[in-house]
C-alpha cells in the first residue's frame, strides 16, 4: 500500500494500487458534459456500448447565464465564473439584462435509469477524491467527457488521481492529448492536416490551426459522432412508439431539419428547394414525418409548415409532447437529413436504412470532408427530388460507438484493467 496525496488537499488515502485482480475491474462511470444534448449523447453512447448503461452518474460543467454572460462564453469556465462573481459583487443583480436565454435542452435519460434530479456539478477535486476513497471497494473509475468546457475538468481529474481513473475525452481537445488516457474524435477533425486543407490556409496561419500533429496512440478515430441510439434503444423506441407510428402507410419517410452553422450555411433558398423536392417524391411515400431541431430558423420551418401543413400525408412535429426522434429512427423506412448535423446523420446511418442528404454543397472545411466520407462509404446519397422512396439499397451501417468501445477495452487491457459489463 502507498499513500495518495491530491495536490494540496488535506487528506491521505491508504489504498491498494489498481493493477490487478478485483482492483482492476471497472464497474462504474462518470459522464461529464457541458449540458448540451449532443455532447451528453456521445458520452452516454460510449457508456452504453461498454455495458455500463445503468451504472453511471451524470455531471455537468455549468456557466453563469443571463445578461452579459452570453458574450463571455469564449472565456475558460473558471475565469468566466470569477468575472461573474466580481461583477455581481459590485453591481448585484442589477447588471444582468432582462434577456431571454435558451437553456440547453435536457436529454431524456429515462431509459438509462437516471433523472435530471441526479445531475451534479462537475467538480474535478471532488470526483478525484471519490475515485480514490472508493477504489478499494469499487475499483477504478471510468470518466467520459465531451464538450470544450469539460476539457479542464476531465484533465484535472486524471492529473489528481492518475492511478484510479481512466479518462476518455470525446471530441478533439485540440492540444496536449497526453492529458487524457484516450481521445475519441471523427476522422474529419484531422482534415486541417490534409493537403487540400493546407492549400486553403495562408502559410502564416498554418501553425495556429489545430490539430497540428497526426493522431497518435491516444486517439480513436470514428466516421461520425457517437450516440445513444443503439439496438436496445431502438428496440425500446419501436415498442414505445408502436401505436402511433406502426399504423402509418408505408414507406414512411422521416425528414430531419437542423440549422445553418458557420461551416454549413444555408437559409430560405434551401428550405424552398427542400419543399419542392419533397413535393416531387410524395407520390412514392405512404407518409412523411418532419421534425425540426432547436437550431432550425423560424423562417426555414415556416416555409415547410406553409407548404405541407394541410397535406394529409405529411405530419410536422410541433415540438410539443414527447420527442419522436428515437421512434422515427425505429419506424422510418428512409430519411432525408440536412447536411449540417453530424449527429443526426450518424444516427440515421447506423440504422442501415436509406439516408438522403440535402445541403452538402453548402458545407465547407471539415464538414465537407465528413459529407465526402459518407458518400465514399455509400451510406448516404444526395437528395435530388427524383427518388422513389420505396426503393432501397444496402450498406454497412455505421457502428462507431461499439467500435470505439472495443478499442477502449483494449486500451484498458494494456493497463491491466477490465470492464464488468
What does this structure look like?
This is Mitochondrial fission protein ELM1. One of its GO terms (cellular component) is mitochondrial outer membrane. It comes from Erythroxylum novogranatense. With 421 residues, the chain is α/β, with parallel strands linked by helices. The protein contains 14 helices and 17 strands. The strands form four sheets. The chain has a seven-stranded parallel beta sheet with strand order 6-5-4-7-8-9-10, with helices on both faces. Helix 9 (268-281) runs parallel beside helix 10. The chain is globular and about 65 Å long. The two termini are 28 Å apart. The relative contact order is 0.13.
List strands and helices in order, with pairings:
Layout: E1 2-4, E2 13-15, E3 25-26, E4 29-33, H1 37-49, E5 56-60, H2 77-91, E6 120-121, H3 124-133, H4 135-138, E7 141-146, H5 151-160, E8 165-170, E9 182-186, H6 195-200, E10 219-222, H7 231-240, H8 242-245, E11 252-257, H9 268-281, E12 287-292, H10 298-308, E13 314-316, H11 325-331, E14 334-338, H12 342-349, E15 355-358, H13 365-376, E16 381-382, H14 400-415, E17 418-419
Parallel strand pairs: 3-17, 4-5, 4-7, 5-6, 7-8, 8-9, 9-10, 11-12, 11-14, 12-13, 14-15, 15-16
Antiparallel strand pairs: 1-2
Helix pairs in contact: 1-14, 3-5, 7-11, 9-10
Protein name: Mitochondrial fission protein ELM1
InterPro entries: Elm1-like
Amino acid at each position: 500500500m502507498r499513500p495518495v496525496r491530491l495536490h494540496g488537499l488535506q487528506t491521505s488515502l491508504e489504498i491498494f494500487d489498481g493493477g490487478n485482480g478485483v482492483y482492476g475491474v471497472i464497474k462504474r462511470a462518470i459522464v461529464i458534459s457541458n449540458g448540451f444534448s449532443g455532447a451528453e449523447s456521445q458520452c452516454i453512447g460510449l457508456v452504453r456500448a461498454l455495458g455500463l448503461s445503468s451504472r453511471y452518474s451524470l455531471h455537468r460543467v455549468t456557466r453563469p447565464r443571463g445578461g452579459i454572460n452570453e458574450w463571455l462564453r469564449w472565456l475558460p469556465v473558471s475565469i468566466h465564473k470569477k468575472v461573474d462573481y466580481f461583477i455581481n459583487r459590485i453591481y448585484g443583480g442589477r447588471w444582468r439584462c432582462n434577456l431571454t436565454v435558451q437553456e440547453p435542452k435536457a436529454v431524456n435519460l429515462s431509459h438509462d435509469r437516471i433523472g435530471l434530479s441526479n445531475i451534479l456539478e462537475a467538480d474535478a477535486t471532488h470526483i478525484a477524491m471519490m475515485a480514490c476513497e472508493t477504489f478499494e471497494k469499487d475499483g477504478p473509475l471510468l470518466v467520459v467527457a465531451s464538450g470544450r468546457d469539460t476539457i479542464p475538468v476531465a484533465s484535472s481529474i486524471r492529473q489528481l488521481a492518475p492511478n484510479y481513473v481512466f479518462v476518455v475525452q470525446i471530441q478533439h481537445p485540440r492540444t496536449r492529448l497526453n492529458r487524457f488516457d484516450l481521445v475519441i474524435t471523427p476522422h474529419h477533425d484531422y482534415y486541417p492536416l490534409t493537403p487540400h486543407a493546407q492549400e486553403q490556409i495562408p502559410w502564416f496561419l498554418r501553425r495556429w490551426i489545430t490539430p497540428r500533429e497526426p493522431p497518435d496512440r491516444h486517439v480513436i478515430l470514428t466516421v461520425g459522432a457517437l450516440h445513444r441510439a443503439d439496438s436496445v434503444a431502438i428496440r425500446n423506441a419501436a415498442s414505445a412508439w408502436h401505436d402511433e407510428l406502426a399504423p402509418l402507410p408505408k414507406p414512411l419517410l422521416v425528414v430531419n431539419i437542423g440549422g445553418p452553422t458557420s461551416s454549413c450555411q444555408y437559409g430560405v433558398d434551401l428550405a424552398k428547394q427542400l419543399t419542392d423536392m419533397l413535393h416531387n417524391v410524395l407520390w412514392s411515400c405512404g407518409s412523411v414525418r418532419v421534425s425540426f431541431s432547436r437550431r432550425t430558423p423560424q423562417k426555414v420551418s415556416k416555409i415547410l409548415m406553409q407548404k405541407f401543413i394541410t397535406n394529409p400525408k405529411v405530419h410536422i412535429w410541433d415540438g410539443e409532447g414527447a420527442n419522436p426522434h428515437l421512434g422515427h429512427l425505429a419506424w422510418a423506412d428512409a430519411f432525408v437529413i440536412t447536411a449540417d448535423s453530424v449527429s443526426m446523420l450518424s444516427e440515421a446511418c447506423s440504422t442501415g436504412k436509406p439516408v438522403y442528404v440535402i445541403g452538402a454543397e453548402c458545407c465547407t472545411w471539415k464538414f465537407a470532408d465528413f459529407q465526402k466520407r459518407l458518400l465514399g462509404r455509400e451510406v448516404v446519397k444526395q437528395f435530388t427530388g427524383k427518388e422513389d422512396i420505396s426503393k432501397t439499397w444496402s450498406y454497412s451501417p455505421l457502428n462507431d460507438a461499439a467500435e470505439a468501445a472495443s478499442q477502449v477495452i483494449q486500451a484498458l487491457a494494456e493497463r491491466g484493467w477490465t470492464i464488468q459489463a
